[in-house]
TrEMBL record:
Transmembrane segment boundaries: none
InterPro entries for the chain: KaiC-like_dom, KaiC_dom, P-loop_NTPase
Full protein name: Circadian clock protein kinase KaiC
Region entry Disordered, spans: 1-32
Taxon lineage: Archaea, Candidatus Micrarchaeota, Candidatus Fermentimicrarchaeales, Candidatus Fermentimicrarchaeaceae, Candidatus Fermentimicrarchaeum
Biased composition (Basic residues): 1-15
Species this protein is from: Fermentimicrarchaeum limneticum
Pfam family, one: ATPase
Keyword ATP-binding: yes
Length: 260
């Protein structure tokens, strides 16, 4: 009888210890966004190795959010990154990033960052062939984060929505195979409450962030919404954000005045 009681007490202790340890383990499994205030909305960070879609109008802050995710990931959390672009060149990206104090050239010199400029048709060849400059960089510097700007340029290569959707699915699967947390910009023009994107890509990704840049009378208002995030109890609130001298800052406790 005493032996049975000892076994039961030991089992209860193990259960309590596992319960106490689980929040810590969950915390370790999250990927910090590097964006002040955003992690409060998404359970402490993104799910590791997930594909995150960032949608919004022109000028809403999509590329800035992507670069902030990459720069602070490398600088603050020692997670090397790659930025893949189909449009803006390296010199321009690095110049504009410096306004927030993001010295990507320094990260490159430390082996924490790689900038890759592709024509859209080249990325299509990567998806078909598998071997690529991206994979070589992942292996050489131990990449943990990938940023892509933008999915729209990639989708335009294909003749039909079906072909575009299949190509995007192949791209997302390749990113997951690489075991990286990936953030992809999509230039979808959204109105408040719109839930439909190009080729239905919001259903293919693991997470969708919507950035709004809307007019309220004589003012322009910036706001962020988490449309979905698998494996995460995320906030449904539409929160304001602003650009600071260190990048985007989200205000999770504040509300957007009026309607977007």
């Amino acid at each position: 009888m005493k032996k049975v009681r000892r076994i039961k007490r030991a089992a209860r202790r193990r259960h309590v210890e596992s319960v106490r340890a689980s929040p810590q383990k969950a915390e370790e499994d999250r990927v910090r966004s590097g964006v002040n205030g955003l992690d409060d909305l998404i359970g402490g960070g993104f799910e590791r190795n997930s594909v995150i879609l960032v949608c919004g109008d022109a000028g809403s802050g999509k590329t800035t959010l992507n670069l902030q995710f990459l720069y602070n990931g490398a600088e603050q959390y020692d997670e090397p990154g790659i930025f893949i672009t189909f449009e803006e060149g390296k010199k321009s990206v690095y110049k504009h990033a410096m306004q927030y104090g993001w010295d990507f050239k320094s990260l490159e010199d430390k082996g924490l960052f790689t900038f890759i400029e592709y024509r859209p048709q080249q990325i299509a060849e990567i998806i078909k062939g598998g071997s690529s400059t991206v994979k070589d960089s992942i292996d050489s510097i131990g990449v943990k984060r990938i940023g892509i700007d933008s999915l729209t340029s990639y989708s335009m290569l294909f003749k039909t929505p079906y072909e575009g959707r299949e190509a995007v699915l192949s791209l997302f699967n390749r990113l997951r195979d690489w075991k990286c947390t990936s953030m992809i910009v999509s230039e979808i023009i959204l109105q408040f409450g719109s839930k439909r994107g190009e080729a239905g890509v919001e259903f293919l990704s693991d997470a969708v962030l919507l950035l709004y840049y809307a007019r309220q009378q004589d003012l322009k208002v910036r706001a962020l919404e988490i449309l979905k995030m698998r494996g995460t109890r995320h906030s449904d609130k539409v929160c304001p954000f602003k650009f600071s001298d260190k990048g985007i800052v989200v205000f999770p406790k504040d509300s957007v005045f009026g309607r977007l």
